[in-house]
Records
---
Amino acid sequence: MTTCPQCQQLINSQAIDCPYCKTTLKAFGHPGMPLSQATQTEFLCDRCLYHEDDSCTYDKRPFAKTCMLYQDKTQPILNEDIIKLTPSNPLTKLKRWSYRHRRMLLIVGLIGLSLAIALSN
Ligand SMILES: [Zn+2]
């Protein structure tokens, strides 16, 4: 459960819009896309991290009332914290490395495969 940013009623955290005031809470009607809502008196951009560091490309900036990518500059970014907290064992490091270099690995794999075919004939 969560509270509606507009009417402060207790609502389901997966609700696409508020059943009381009809405020849209999720983008594209999808529960996995939370939509941040500004209050009546201010814009989201006023306290958004991406507006402050000038990396925002949203066309409604700096007067956005709703935004999918809004990041409160007073709050820590959760994703980065999760990455920092994950234990860095060698296997995880290898997995990340191979994910980052997957294109190169694919090419090397293909060359190896063609060599193997060529040499077996
Ligand atoms: Zn509401």
---
Amino acid sequence: MPTVSFRGREIGCERGDRLRTVLREAGLSPHSDGADRLNCRGFGSCGTCAVAVSGAVSEPTRRERLRLSVPPHDGDGELRLACQTRVLGDVTVQKFPGFWGQHTDEPPLSGDEPPQGDDGAAEP
Ligand code: FES
């Protein structure tokens, strides 16, 4: 049984499960605070479920590669769409700041941060 590590939690799942589904069923989210309710629900079009993943996962789908090539993403291969990614073994997941989780040049979010605005800045 693969294990997904995210924000200090370890979640067991079945091989082949979609990463976004695994996280949401565990009460976690691959979305930033603002995008948690405003997203495409796993269709692969909004790009807000982008996360960094290390470990055994499926190859990017055509839909995923297309969405990650459109700004604010840059298609550099650093991020995956959790809704299009299937877990094939133990994985570690990180979410970066920004509405789309696109600020990979900043430290990943730990889950303890205050809510963020659309520009990724902390709200007062
Ligand atoms: S939920 Fe919209 S791209 Fe994954």
---
Amino acid sequence: MLTHTTLVLGLLATPVPVDPIPVENVLTHLRAFQATADTHGGSRVAGRPGHDASARYVAARLREAGYTVELQPFTFDFYREVAPAALSGRHRFRGVSTMHFSGSGDVTGRPRRAGLGCAEQDYRRFVRGRIAVVRRGSCSFEVKAQQAVKAGATALIVVDQKGPFKGNANRPQPIPVLAVGKEVGARVAGLRRVRVVTRTESETRRTYNVIAQTPGARPDGKVVMVGAHLDSRFEGPGINDNGTGAAAILELALRMAGARPATAVRFAWWSAEEEGLYGSKHYVAKLTPQERQSIEVYLNVDMIGSRNHTYGVYKGASERFFARYFSRLHLPYHTADLNGASDYAPFSDADVQVGGLFTGGKEAKTKAEAILYGGTAGKPKDPCYHKACDTMANVDHEVLAVSTGAIAEVVARYVSCAPCRVN
Ligand SMILES: [Zn+2]
């Protein structure tokens, strides 16, 4: 099924070894990612040992193949609510929510109003060790939290005059921060003692991108970039999302290690994609304008072994290369809209051409797609998206094989034409 790539080889001044990539090699990397999750608390979440171990695995394979590997460190703010907030006086109040980036804690104390809580003045008569109760408005929740901490509050309750709400304190806070409606706010302020319990993980974490580049220098200095995020959600090992993409581009990099393509190929394994594309954003932000312009195209590979798959090709410059590949294999594909949900977004925001492949996430397969691709209409394309069951069993080997071949061929086409004319 994947013997197509011989067609490409003839076009290359220096052959790039993109003859069929055995899916077994890709699966070997995937099993390594599964093992790192299994031995590190069940996930490969950024800033935690499961991701670090995955990154060490990728870097070690690359180094063995002769690459110089760059580890690009950065920090990002991690937040998750481990359990719902509890606010109680004589009994527990309803309509209480933990503010995003609230600290974790279990504190009991006397509530004390502090106006809007935006300025030091609001805390003039505040007694350290009490629980601050402030009104929503006038300044950000982050400023309110900062002022409360400065005044020595052990927790902060923000009251909206309308009703219960959700808020975001913007960065990790050292104390519990709750959001409540008017009714709860009024009752709490009248009590002598309340107890606030939040259970969160809210902290700045450190992680890194893994980057490696083939030799090859084009007179115009352009490179082709291929990237995949290596981190998973905290809920699971992230084998389809995105062990598949990370493993496929690792195997491609290993096979290109001996090659001297006319155009250099730069591979990137991003971290903290799941928390908000932090790794790719950091990378793009660090580029000089000249470095940015030197990227001919950025190809993103995120989820390429979905069990109830479709072949979604990102709109843009690389579309026609993917189209040729799928057409030749008599396989259906469709154009996928760029919705900003993966690591191509910082590149396209910086005016770099982007492309890539995606075989489907939590969205349900339509009837029309089921007719075209097979599979089950009305069911998610990846039934284990962001779940603990995103394991080795959550990967369709044939879809992974076809997708890996697609990426390999598109990269080969890019490096064989210098400069590439698109459309
Ligand atoms: Zn992903």
